[in-house]
Each structure stands twice: as C-alpha cells, then as structure tokens.
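Handoff note, outgoing to incoming analyst
You'll be picking up this chain. Sequence as last confirmed:
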Amino acid sequence: MKREHWLYICSVVAVGMLLFFGGNPGLAGVIEAQGDSAQRTLTVRASAEVAAVPDLATIQLGVHTRDETAERALADNSRQMEALLSVLRTLGIEDRDMQTSRLSVSPVYEYREREERQLVGFQAENGLRVAVRDLDQIGTIIDRSVRAGANRVQGISFSVSDMTAHEDDALRRAVAGAREKAEVLADEAGTTIVGIASIDATRDDPGAPVYREATRAFDTPVLPGEVSVQTSVEIVFEISR
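Most recent structure output, in case you need it:
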C-alpha cells in the first residue's frame, strides 16, 4: 500500500472515530494518528472513574469573636476555643486529629456617609481542622461543637484513608479503555499495535466541598455518600508500517 493511500485511510478513520467517541462521555478523548520514517504512532486518551465509600471526614470548625479591644476579643475567643476542644476530646477526637488552620486578630471599621472610616472594635478568628474517623459521629460532633461556642462550620469533606487500591483500579480501567480504542482504530486503518512509546497518567480533581455557616445548634443530618477516583491516561502506541 502506498504511503499516501495509508495516510488517507488513517485520516478518515481518525476523524470518524473522534466523532463517535466524542459523543460518549465515558470515552471522551482526542484521537490522532502520527507517522514518520522511523516509527508510526497512534495517540489515544481515555478516562475512568471508580466510586469508593469514604471512611474519613474532615470538618472545618471556627470561633469568631468581636470586642472593643483586641485583647478582649482574643481572650473571649480563646475561652470559646478551649471549650470547643474540651468537647471534642470528650467525643473521642484525639489531639493528632485536630489542627489549627487559621488564627487572626484584625480591626473592624465602619464606613459612614461623608465621614472617614471609624475604628469600632476588633475581631478574632480561630479555625480548627478536625479529622473524624467514625463517620456516625459527624452530626453529633457538629451539634456539640456549635453548642460549645463554634460559630463557624466552614466546610466538610469526605475521603478514603487509603486510596491506593481504588487508584490502581481506575488506572487499569483507563488503560484498558485506551487499549480498546486503539485496537479499533488500528484495525480500521489496516495496521496493528506493536508496542507502546509512552504513557501519561493524571488523577482528576473530584471537586471541592460545599461551605456553609452555622449560627445555632441543631440536629445535623450528614450523608457521606461516595467519593470518586477519576483517572485519565494518554498512551502513544507504536503501530506497524
């Protein structure tokens, strides 16, 4: 088969398969055929997603206080934070699972019409990141924390403590999907896969948690649901001439 004829077939097949796979979210990817005098290649992208049941939650709690002086704002904040820490320890949260994420004291100004800004007080912020290993306790931890003085529930996220097995599973599925697509393309183009030139894998971001503010104590329903592991691969296959 002449070189020009072969390249024409590859171009037609690549465009057709791109249109076919592009309409299917599970097979999304850019497919292209490349060739030179040394080695012809076929580049395929594929992705896979694996669902996992979370066994770890991270809650962002915080205490916000305000007073006329910075000293009193900070002192009040410290008292409320100590009460919060005491409650969390009572609920079985270990110190290794609690980490200060933010601590600040700043002035508070008011802007009045036709007047310069006026200093009206100071505010203190103390943020605490809490890892919860018993997911059945999340609702209780939030409720008791608010009662103890936490007036910020700024975020909650779920994860799996050991993602290795799920990441490996997602990678296997993505590679298998890429291989399947490459074999279809190669077969339609009248060639065969003879090797792999390179593989590039990427873990996709599953998204950020939803943030909200708590202003009162309440019975908090929390559903951990599932977390997903999303992986994409780009494989450059070597094909026969």
